[in-house]
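step=predict obj=Alpha/beta hydrolase n=314
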Amino acid sequence: MSRLPHVADGPYAPPVPARELTVTAADGARIHVEVHGPEGAPAVVLAHGWCCSTAFWAAQIRELAADHRVIAYDQRGHGRSPANPAYGTEPLADDLEAVLDATLAPGERAVIAGHSMGGMTLMAAAGRPAVREHAAAVLLCSTGSARLVASATVLPMRAGRVRTWLTRRILGSRAPLGPVTPLARRILKYGTMGPGSGPDMVEACARIVHACPSRVRHGWSQVLDLLDLDHGVRELRMPVEIVVGTADRLTPPVQARALAAALPDCVGLTELPGLGHMTPVEAPDLVSGKIRALAATYIPSARGERAVPVEERA
């Protein structure tokens, strides 16, 4: 059993950042930010999901930081970002906007990838000036914009009011998750990962999820329960690519297909057979490759044009 917030070795162990900083959001919330990779390289920004942390992106950071500047941050109340009494999609948008303003030069473009609640953060912030200025392209992994509880298939029963009621009680539970035990790993794998997920993947996700404080987990579950960001999807006017696992029980493929139909500029929808909700962990090479390809296509500096040196940043 372990309460360590992440694995200590292997492909899912978080790399040491080149630098760390604390960003202050509009309401005073303090957001922990990590920067990896060389300064002046094409920028990538990573926004993790509910109950996770920057450690969730370890595989992507490890692969991309060789030739990209990778910026990852802890959502408020997660990882090393202190809990804050403000829960809601607007605070999530505030935090992303603050991170972009603090880490990117004026006019600098980046690929922004969001998993689950991180994708919802992007939808909430789609109309914000910082997103309009800095988002060259977006990758949405395993996410949705509305009706999350009703569409979730965590419970193997027919869709309807009873399933929705029971799912709401499970996802919104205040009960602490406790240490990572064999039973806890099995439960987490069933609810969030595909049946073929390896033990190292399950261990990495279990450590991260179990490290999330129960009050933070519950507080954000209430936001996700009432989520309605369909309007935000239509404001994502930059090129957007979507990845989803066909065995995703939390944001099943119906959510991804609805996003693809509503986005003004959807450049691809990839459904990964047998994979669950944790696609960046379950398909690390594919997700990293999608981010790399978006950067190569939509960021001028990734195509060999001049990047913005750090000394020229405001």
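step=describe
The first strand starts at residue 19 and ends at 24.
step=end
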